[in-house]
Amino acid sequence: MVDSQYYLPNDIGISALDCRVAFRLLSPKEQMYAHYLSRASWYGGLIVLIQTSPESANIYVLLQKIFRLQAPQQLEAAATAAGLSAEEYQAFLVYAAGLYANMGNYKSFGDTKFIPNLPKFKALVWESLAFKQSPGDMETLWGCCCEPLYSLEDKQKQLGLGEKGISAYFSGNCCLEDAEFAQKFLDSKVYFTFQSLDCFLIACISLPSADNCAVEGKSEVCCGKHEFEDSVFSVKRGDYAFLMEKVCQNLEKAKDYAANENQKRMLEEYIRSFTCGSVEAHKEGSRYWIKDKGPIVESYIGFIESYRDPFGSRGEFEGFVAVVNKAMSARFAQLVSSAEVLLPELPWPPAFEKDIFLKPDFTSLDVLTFAGSGIPAGINIPNYDDIRQTEGFKNVSLGNVLAVAYATQKDKLTFLEENDKDLYIKWKGPSFEVQVGLHELLGHGSGKLFVQDDKGKYNFDQTAVRNPETGELISSWYKGSETWDSKFSTIASSYEECRAECVGLYLCLNKQVLSIFGHEGEDAEEVVYVNWLNMVRAGLLGLEFYTPESKSWRQAHMQARFVILRVLLEAGEGLVGLRECTGADGRPDAVITLDRSKIYTVGKSAIQRFLCKLQVHKSTADVEGGRALYEGYSAVTTDGTHNFLRLRETVLLRKEARKMFVQANTYIKGDAVELVEYEGSAAGLIQSFVERFPDDAEEVEAQLLEMTSMDSRKEEPHTQM
Predict the structure, then answer these.
(1) pLDDT tens-digit profile of 50-87?
(2) What does DSSP assign to residue 166?
(3) pLDDT tens digits, one per residue of 469-502
(4) What's the number of CA atoms in the CB half-sphere (13 Å) around residue 684?
(5) Can you list the alpha helix ranges (DSSP code H) found in 508-555?
(6) Closest to 118 measured CA to CA, from 144, 141, 86, 145
(7) Which of 237, 288, 244 is nearest to 267 (CA)?
């Protein structure tokens, strides 16, 4: 029997993201701008299929061909003819919706593979109108993906590097040592992000770009072969060329509707970046993006987050377009204004904080388009450390995502005492809003990295700055082109999310912060209690995303929350209680409790000490110390007070699937932009994707298959930039 964690349940939550009112309030020019940015994002988002797994694009094209000729309601008759029950057909629709929502057959949150929960997938394909019209093409497509569609061999159960899982960022013969060696080469050439690597004596590094042109700028690596430490690296451009060209074409059209010069220059640099594969151009575009303060239509696009790269350096494509929610943004603006007062409250010496806090934009947005493998609740970007440290960043909270993503039904609320459940449901939304604000602005936005640049110049006084943990002068820092991601590699993402979550927990105790969000008196105390309770519960839920066989974590945020749970359990004095029990249904269960009277004493002290350690290791590039600290708390063990491996089985037994979102499409009708929304269901999600590429769907699909085929034919070791 297959473990249920590899299926998407038929009753999975699927919600439509409501952006109708926000979109209609835009001017015709703003709507055109949003439309073309959305088109660029959707085309680029298809790259994620190729970044996720070798079979994802094939499955996507198979489904698109089926649903383009028969909508879900029409296909039901074919399903009946193929012998599927109503439950099996719903399982088919849920699988298809999951493939679209995650842009691949691995969950975007957790990196676990999911397979169809029905045995008659092939029978349905053969009964479809698409098969009857083009049996040869459909049979070929089926042959390309039928085996990996259902395969749950140990290596294929999750994304990972080498024997630990599947990765489209590396060829199958790459191990951690190969990835480290490739990173060493890239650091030597002042390279920052890349997409895939095949490893042997010769390694080929591919950069995503529309062209194979030369790039201006001496800090860019030139195409061709490079000898490095008795090995040869071959660098080429042109990865995802067809899709990158589509992205650039739509960004070019968006330029005509830009609101100001910063937006125009931003788009010009993005186009240059995506045409030539230039990281420097994307960084320059990001600088103009930061300068574009308070836009009505907000967006960002590129190879952004490195969560799914097993080495933690390569960016997955994403693009979002959203409209500002002015009422909620006013609260975040007030938080930004208070930042310079709140930052000194953080538990590290002033020397470990940025020299100048560059006040960012912090807005609440209603998402129109979010193309990629998943939609977060908040974002702090750009991810370029050198820009964030000296030029600034932006924070966004995605309001219409928060409104539907974290709604919880009492009968599905696990691991809490009954007297906590009503309180949790009432205050989870408001408390999470506070946590997201603090996490993004003062979590990711705080802390200094000590750097010695290529010219030997320090950004700190090496004769005066002392480690607060030891009292000694600091003895390590970032050198030359080293970055946070390149130094801390496999733990960088989760470690940073943990640091940001701790900042949120620590500063939510500040009454000024709570007042900014409209919480006073008893209500403020309830927000604090539920925020901390939610964090320790999330730490327990995080065990779902741990793989015992490889002793690895598959989701950065959930690993971070488990680490925080361990820290607060270690604090003792009854602050957090965690006990195993038997549920009312006779199955294993667990209950987690939090003593609210000890949050401001025991809890605050524990987070204060831990947060300071996290920042010191990060600031000083102390990889050895940081890794020992973080991996120690990340360990999922059977010894000690709690048997976390047994608790993991209980969590898996009672887990609730993560929600999926249905997004709207925009079309140009005459001189106006039309917004088309879909119902919040598997059928609605499927239909939104079928209608997403109305003019060139077959060409897009043919190119996806060609790109996938090229990847599978590569003989030399390869990595994507």
Answers:
(1) 999 999 999 999 999 999 999 999 999 999 999 999 99
(2) B
(3) 999 999 999 999 899 999 999 999 999 999 999 9
(4) 17
(5) 511-516, 521-541
(6) 86
(7) 288
Q: What tokens appear for 39 in the block?
A: 């088109």
- Report the alpha-carbon distance of residue 209 to residue 203 in Å, rounded: 19
Binding-site residue ranges for Zn(2+): 439, 444, 497
Q: Which two tokens stand for residue 169?
A: 């960022």
Task: Please enumerate in sequence order all residues whose Cβ is within 8 A of that of 111, keeping only pairs 6 or more positions apart, or say none.
Answer: 158, 159, 160, 165, 308, 545, 554, 555
Name the amino acid, one letter, at 345.
E
Average pLDDT, the chain: 91
Residue type for position 452: Q
**14-16 and 660-662: which strand pairing?**
parallel
Helices of type H across 542-681: 556-571, 604-619, 623-634, 644-653
What's the length of the chain? 721
Q: Would you give the DSSP letter of residue 222?
A: P
Pairing of strands 718-720, 202-208: parallel
Q: How far from chain centre, in Å, is Cα 668?
A: 30
The set of catalytic residues is 440
Q: Which of 307-311, 326-330, 405-409, 440-444 is the least confident region?
A: 405-409
Tell me how crowded residue 32 is: count the other CB atoms within 10 A of its CB.
21
Binding residue positions: 439, 444, 497
Alpha-carbon span 159 to 157, nearest angstrom: 7
